Amino acid sequence: MAFQQGLSGLNSASRNLDVIGHNIANANTVGMKTSRAEFAELYASSINSSGGINAGIGVSVATVSQMFTQGNISVTGNELDLAINGAGFFELGQRDGSMAYSRAGMFKLDADGNIINNEGANLMGYPTDVDGNRTAFESQPLRLPTGGPIPARQTTAITAEFNLDARAGIAAAQVPPTPLATYATSIVAFDQQGLEIPVTLAFEKIGNNQWNVYAAANGDDPAAAVPFQINFLPDGSYDPANVVPPLQLASPNDPAQVFNVDLNFEDVTQFGTAFAVADIDQDGYRPGEFTGLNIDEQGIVTARYSNGETHAAGQVAMVNFRNVQGLSPTGGGNWVRTAASGEPVRGAPGEGNFGVLKSGALEDSNVDLTAELVNMMTAQRAYQANAQTIKTQDQVLNTLLSMR
Fold first, then answer.
1. Strands, E, within 208-287: which ranges?
2. I need a labelling partner for 338 at 20 to 30 A (CA). Which of 20, 166, 271, 331 fits?
3. Strand pairing of 58-66 and 300-305?
4. pTM score of the predicted model
5. What per-residue confidence (pLDDT) applies to 2?
């Protein structure tokens, strides 16, 4: 029996050394989770031994489990590096169509704009609109529009926020008359091809709390335009009863292509302070080439373009499992689900119990190298002790065989 005990101890110690060696070898592997060998004693079942003393027949490795504790997060500066701070896994669509799950966030763009890992598996995510609002909960490969420029957008509205000086005199009563350019501002609008259309807005006081608005485009003199009137309430706020007609603009390449642009003056005021434009904006833009991306803590992937626009291109999907110990490692930092792990629970970064993402960073291996070196020495001693058990039993048998 001692031979059996010693042999089982050697096998178990050897397997423990294999596990420790694997941990040490992957001390610098991104997203790696340390493993440990868990042992169980062996007993020979027997009716005669019931209720008595059974010395046992050795030891076995019951399982090799992984420790899914959080690894340190190291900043890399690469915008496609992602670290999960908290629970959850990246979902990866592999080339064979199956799904894998990983904590290794070293991603790249392929020639088609797909976000992939080093094995060519697609990072999965949820579709969103351009503002980052999720439009579906079925994951799909995340893809950025890198193949060509985004099309231009025609301006549909101009929004202005400024103050007209309540101290200004009525224009008809001024000698000499106040130049129309005294209270004026400008902005560039765009037609459907992204061609620029300069727009000038000028304001002239015509009465108490009453102003004329002159709008001109393409360098035309505002004074030649037909004005419309806006009024203010006694407290200087904008009168919501104002009716502001749309501004008609024409494409520079084809003057017959006329389109309307709404003017929003709801944040305009008339206070006793100097004329000042706080903000003026429009919703059109010229075509733009892809220049880069950003991924926030909630996993929203935002593409940047050369025209200054930013459009959301999806949201990184995350999954978790009721029993992460049931996941089966397949190499390359990946796991696959099994019957023991259960079905994946879907979510997004920062939702519920899911962790948040850190862009430009990676999660280090959670291997404690010092602890593993100590474990290795302990396993080595265990191996030597079991070998000594076999050697001692062999000496005992030799003694018995030598008796005469």
1. 210-217, 228-231, 247-250, 258-264, 269-271, 276-282
2. 20
3. unpaired
4. 0.78
5. 61
